[in-house]
Amino acid sequence: MQDATTLTGATEADLDAFRRPLTGFCYRMLGSPFEAEDAVQETLLRAWRSLSGFDGRSSLSTWLHRIATNVCVDMLKSRQRRAMPMDFGPAQEPVETNLHTRPEITWVEPIPGTALEGETDPADVAVSNESIKLAFIAALQHLPPRQRAALILCEVLRWRAAEVAELLETSVASVNSALQRARATLDASGLTAESAQPQVDPAQTELLQRYVDAFQRYDLEALTAVISADAKQSMPPYDMWLSGRDDIFAWWWGPGIGCKGSRLLPAPKANGSVAYGQYKPSPSSGYDPWALQVIEVEDGSITQLTFFLDTKRFFPLFGLPDRLES
């Protein structure tokens, strides 16, 4: 259910109270925390400028999300959809010649959980975490903008179809039709907004501690014990991705051997998953930033590792230092 507050007598503080839910909505629409922040700023600016002329017949939430939807749709017109490396074909061999960037592609970018906190009900938290997973965000990018908005509002934010129809200025039948097409697209990817995974429990915490220790020691046997045999690894902005623990290790002990001796620093959760700042040994002294690692766990082992290499953008976003001393 939406907030029932109307715009009558609303203040700038009332508008700003919606910043986090609007950030979650805009991030799912756009796939970038930086674009989401810009969209929320533009939404609140437009809302404040129009506040005096609005008659208050709909809720403040509906009005703000309508503005945010229009802002996001406008932004999506100017670029191609965001993607993950898995969107561009099968896994590749773990050799350096397969490292390619795609200047024409904009990548799905991680967002810290601190930007989205607010849910308190365990069921809502579970759905929120799953609907922010990198794979789900990437799948959303395949949907046309209005289908995407309808799915996020109904499946993630749990609005009624009638409320979404009011926001999109269309009929309930049109909303239901858009939802049906959107669900079919996501079903083809094996993803839904409600296929929530369990929250990190003590066993997973212990598993991740073992991973950190094993990675920092570059201990093959210990890493084998925590990483699934069918795990996947990707490294945006490169389009190469690896499938299977053997290929991942072939990379780590081959072209990626420079990561040996790295240090991992805990970061805020990224897209509902545990994240670490990775720092490689510096040629001079200390450790230089290398990647934001996003680690996904399922059935007692690590199943996916995403290394975001743009540390100049993501380390400040996640509150990570720009280097580590010895």
Secondary-structure map with pairings?
Elements: H1 12-16, H2 19-30, H3 33-50, H4 60-76, E1 82-83, E2 106-107, H5 122-130, H6 134-140, H7 145-156, H8 161-168, H9 172-188, H10 202-217, H11 220-226, E3 227-234, E4 241-243, H12 245-252, E5 263-270, E6 273-281, E7 287-298, E8 301-308, H13 311-317
Parallel strand pairs: 1-2, 3-8
Antiparallel strand pairs: 3-4, 5-6, 6-7, 7-8
Major beta sheet summary = 6 strands, mixed
The number of helical elements comes to 13
Helix-strand category:
alpha/beta
Average the pLDDT over all residues and give the rounded result: 88
Portion in strands: 15-25%
Morphology call: elongated
- Element-level helix/strand string: HHHHEEHHHHHHHEEHEEEEH
Provide the helix percentage.
40-55%
Report on the structure:
The protein is α/β, with parallel strands linked by helices. It has two domains: 12-188, no CATH class; 202-317, Nuclear Transport Factor 2, Chain: A (Roll), CATH 3.10.450. 44% of the residues lie in helices and 16% in strands. It contains 13 helices and eight strands. The strands form two sheets. A six-stranded mixed beta sheet has the order 4-3-8-7-6-5. Helix 7 packs across helix 9 (172-188). It is elongated. It starts with 11 loop residues before the first helix and ends in a 9-residue tail after the last helix. The relative contact order is 0.12.
